[in-house]
Amino acid sequence: MKRKIQIGVIGSGADLKYSSEVEKSAFELGRLIAKSKNITVFGAEKDYDSLSTAASRGAKQQGGLTVGVTYGVKKDIWDKDGNTDIIIVTGLERGGGREFVLVNSCDVIISVSGGSGTLTEIAIGYQLNIPIVALIGTGGWTDKLVGTFLDSRKRLKILSARTPAEAVNMAIKVVNK
Amino acid sequence: MKRKIQIGVIGSGADLKYSSEVEKSAFELGRLIAKSKNITVFGAEKDYDSLSTAASRGAKQQGGLTVGVTYGVKKDIWDKDGNTDIIIVTGLERGGGREFVLVNSCDVIISVSGGSGTLTEIAIGYQLNIPIVALIGTGGWTDKLVGTFLDSRKRLKILSARTPAEAVNMAIKVVNK
Amino acid sequence: MKRKIQIGVIGSGADLKYSSEVEKSAFELGRLIAKSKNITVFGAEKDYDSLSTAASRGAKQQGGLTVGVTYGVKKDIWDKDGNTDIIIVTGLERGGGREFVLVNSCDVIISVSGGSGTLTEIAIGYQLNIPIVALIGTGGWTDKLVGTFLDSRKRLKILSARTPAEAVNMAIKVVNK
Amino acid sequence: MKRKIQIGVIGSGADLKYSSEVEKSAFELGRLIAKSKNITVFGAEKDYDSLSTAASRGAKQQGGLTVGVTYGVKKDIWDKDGNTDIIIVTGLERGGGREFVLVNSCDVIISVSGGSGTLTEIAIGYQLNIPIVALIGTGGWTDKLVGTFLDSRKRLKILSARTPAEAVNMAIKVVNK
Questions:
Q1: Which one of B131, B147, C55, D80 is at 20 to 30 Å from D4 when CA atoms are compared?
Q2: For A106-151, what is each residue's pLDDT tens digit?
Q3: Of residues A92, A100, A153, nearest to B15 (C-beta)
Q4: ipTM, 2 decimals?
């Protein structure tokens, strides 16, 4: 593949009150994706921060390329600090539609903690045969689903990584395989 | 509400090899929705049968109204027996996109067994504040998620019904509430 | 085809200030679709009336079945008078996305007058090989495009009807052909 | 705006048999967008070339950044030469859905020649208040619609540019205004 790998980082929204430690992990994921010269794809919210957005900050600190996928019809995303290189406005609502375009546009996904939105994204990834790496120890659906198949079709087992570095390496490896 | 209630029946595709007993439950759900004079919304596949489609057969046997929500750009759905009154062609792919329109168009959802597609639909329903009734004892994600909230936002608890009759009554009640 | 024909009526929104005569034509289209025992599909707005919605009133007066296709994530459409039997909530925004699901779900479309939204719908219909009948004399893009192909691919010529009765008959005929 | 401007180049597909001169203009548009340090957004087909894809080749020759927006669920786009930096897979079908995400994601659009797909995109742009610059003399809907409003709402007049250089300058200017 000549293209850089498009790695989605998905995880809880700020309303789920994740710890600063988990946020640092998400930031570190973005930083390491950038360091590997690959692309960070994230879900850009319009009302609040998220672990996904934290990854974009990490990527940007390291000079990486970031793609924010948002909902609705305007580019008025929450991140106004210049951490988003490209905004994709899906015209689909949040809660499944926007998430579908986000996941569908990734070569691989790394999940961190996560509530119902992340669950939706993991389930979409599984259905679309897009590999998912779970950063364990971060709680939420990431920890609940790691190591499992989502049904008896056994399409893709959700992979397990213990650190951001391991997660990014694993994501790159699974795509290049 | 002057409209009839739009009740989605969601569940496993035929490739997940559900039992004939579970299929009968799905059929019965459709029959009882029709008997209550409400509308059965189902996911119309183009390649195989599903519990959702079984519900449309039940609804039709009872003279009910059925709406099949499909993917792609043509109306060539698997059910060609005249059990579908209205076909909605979403232009969105299967695996999250079509499911988003399906769930979003329901007033309430009843889940039966279910693999990753059903999981996606339950997670979407939760995010969109569309009540979900789980028909327990049917296996799959229905049994795994019944009685839970999908995250600490605690939007909607997934309701539990033991029989098709209880599920349909509960679905109607939760919408009229 | 065992299904009833799904006939979309598309046209200007109320902000385009159409005449009461044109509105009557749209109403009459819905009435005649209902009389032919077929289904009226229309674009349900959340903020104002439209020719499309007028068709649903006509269909309902005649006891027909109506399907309103709307945008966003809620069923709070402008028509609250019980003229909508089924609401499809696409989760796609207005201005092309919702219109895509609407047109894609029709077997044939009848256009009345029309601004940019109608133009979008006609262009989508052409691309999806969904026949379009233009009710001439109603102005807008309907009158501008009647009798033409939209490009040198010459997929479908936009058909011309002089009266609502001729339009509905033509729509049914072109689908059954 | 800290972001680079996302400039969509839209136009005919190769099946419309555009001249090599028009193709050169599309290529030149991409080259000049890249030279201006902005981003070229294009519609990535999976079966054939297009003026939109020609723009991505121009952009890449000049070392620019390109975003290809495609349909379906896989990244198997026609351009396999490494001219696409980022692929967005919309999960929406071609013929209105994919085009909706494409246009919605642009800050401004430049149109070149164009059949029904381009017409759809121009109509979507108009509805979403995304400025459109028509490169005149290239035929198709670009020449037919230049200088007009698409309806009496008079949202946006379609701007006129005589050369690729004028078109790119005008596109940048209208966004920064």
A1: D80
A2: 999 999 999 999 999 999 999 999 999 999 999 999 999 999 999 9
A3: A153
A4: 0.97
